[in-house]
Design brief:
With 408 residues, the protein is an alpha/beta fold. 34% of the residues lie in helices and 18% in strands. The protein contains twelve helices and 13 strands. The structure holds 6-O-phosphono-beta-D-fructofuranose (F6P).
């Protein structure tokens, strides 16, 4: 069955999501497919028949290499939740009509746990109507919160950016001999993997951050303030890393303790989280009266392609390769997973798993990898994350700046 393929990108981008697109494209091409289409803005764009023939854009190996080093989503992304197929079958009829018109045999969706729900629904519908189209999920998320896979592409590079930037902030943050608190806000809505990776900055030349707060642990403002005071008795400048998703015992996000009530809510019902460091900075200023800096890494941490981890780029490419091969070997309703095969040297292989075991589930940082006080990660976390940030890529530089391939 040599038909055409279509690939889409969904959810928050990463600095290596395009490497997965490159992996799918190159492999599908090498395996003989003529048309590999790209959905513009994921499934949402496909529903309005917005797609391109990727062969018009990716013409040679140089384009493949540029794609690997270009952050954000080349095809554009979306946060779009397909309705359950028993609730609105028309939308599925429409989608399958578009796929048939393009003579699609293989459908790939690069995304996180919400996006895998799209693969799950589409695979179920295909089974219901006896469609032969094969649906494969390609994992990505800086949040690293997909279950079963050892980790997700995108996390390693974001973690490398976070750890490097924290190291630099610690250098700068300790230049004055006065009391100061720097609070750094790191992404990862419900899981603390990326925030925890701030601890990777610790080494012979860096003491690492003083406190790290993950969403897995209920946040208590009073104990936070007393911990800051305690650290400040030993060193005047305190560095605190907080996840954007930390919540107090009533279930509210810390960032909601602000006068700004207008928060964007996406199709999956997620509130936009931002401002946690600012809220805590105000509390520190009010209670301790010292100098405060609130730093939000925001988009920088997920688009920092200048800080890509080589391991991450390679794995991101290989999940794309594995997805194309799996689909053409007849698999459907699956997600590609990464299996850790060895520690020293670090090694991984690709596998696949039923999408229903992954879609809509979330992997937390294990409680045993967090200290008892709930304000730092332990050695187990460091050993897990360290190999994922290893290796550097060499960007194509033109006029002193990295060269990207422009988004469609
Ligand atoms: O996709 C994961 C993520 O980067 C989260 O860490 C963050 O909370 C969210 O996306 C931000 O989403 P958006 O780009 O839609 O604001």
């Amino acid at each position: 069955m040599l038909k055409n393929a279509i690939v889409g990108q969904s959810g928050g981008p990463t600095s290596v999501i395009n490497a997965s697109l490159a992996g799918v494209f190159k492999t599908a091409r090498d395996l003989g497919l003529t048309h590999i289409y790209g959905m513009r803005n994921g499934i949402e764009g496909l529903l309005s028949e917005r797609y391109v023939d990727l062969g018009d854009y990716i013409k040679n190996d140089v384009d493949i290499e540029l794609l690997k080093g270009t952050p954000s989503a080349f095809l554009g992304s979306c946060r779009y939740k397909l309705p359950h197929l028993d609730k609105d079958e028309d939308i599925y009829k429409k989608l399958f009509g578009i796929l048939e018109k393009l003579d699609i045999g293989y459908f790939f969706y690069i995304g996180g746990n919400d996006s895998m729900d799209t693969i799950a629904q589409l695979a179920l519908y295909a089974e219901r109507i006896n469609s032969e189209i094969r649906f494969i999920g390609v994992p990505k998320t800086i949040d690293n919160d997909l279950v079963i896979t050892d980790h997700t592409p995108g996390f390693g590079s974001a973690a490398k950016y976070v750890a490097t930037s924290i190291k630099e902030i610690i250098r700068d943050g300790r230049v004055y001999d006065n009391n100061a608190v720097s609070i750094i806000e790191i992404m990862g809505r419900d899981a603390g993997w990326l925030t925890g990776s701030a601890a990777l900055s610790t080494g012979p030349d860096c003491s690492g951050p003083d406190l790290i707060y993950l969403p897995e642990i209920v946040f208590d403002v009073d104990s936070f303030i007393s911990r800051v005071e305690e650290v400040q008795r030993a060193r005047r400048s305190v560095i605190v890393c907080v996840s954007e998703g930390i919540r107090t015992s009533d279930g509210n996000y810390v960032c909601e303790y602000t006068h700004d009530a207008s928060r964007t809510i996406d199709a999956f019902g997620h509130k936009q989280l931002t401002g946690t460091a600012r809220v805590l900075g105000d509390v520190v200023k009010e209670r301790l009266g010292c100098k405060v800096r609130a730093i939000e890494f925001s988009l920088l941490q997920r688009c920092a392609a200048h800080m890509q981890s080589e391991t991450d780029v390679k794995e991101a490419f290989h999940v794309g390769v594995a997805a194309a091969r799996a689909a053409m070997d007849g698999e459907t309703g699956k997600v590609i997973i990464i299996k850790r095969e060895g520690e020293e040297p670090y090694q991984s292989t690709m596998g696949s798993c039923d999408v229903h075991l992954i879609a809509n589930y979330k992997k937390d940082v294990p409680r045993e990898w967090i200290n008892e006080a709930g304000d730092y990660v332990l050695e187990e976390f460091i050993s897990y994350a360290r190999p994922l940030i290893s290796g550097e890529t060499t960007p194509v530089v033109v006029n002193g700046l990295p060269r990207h391939i422009e988004n469609i």
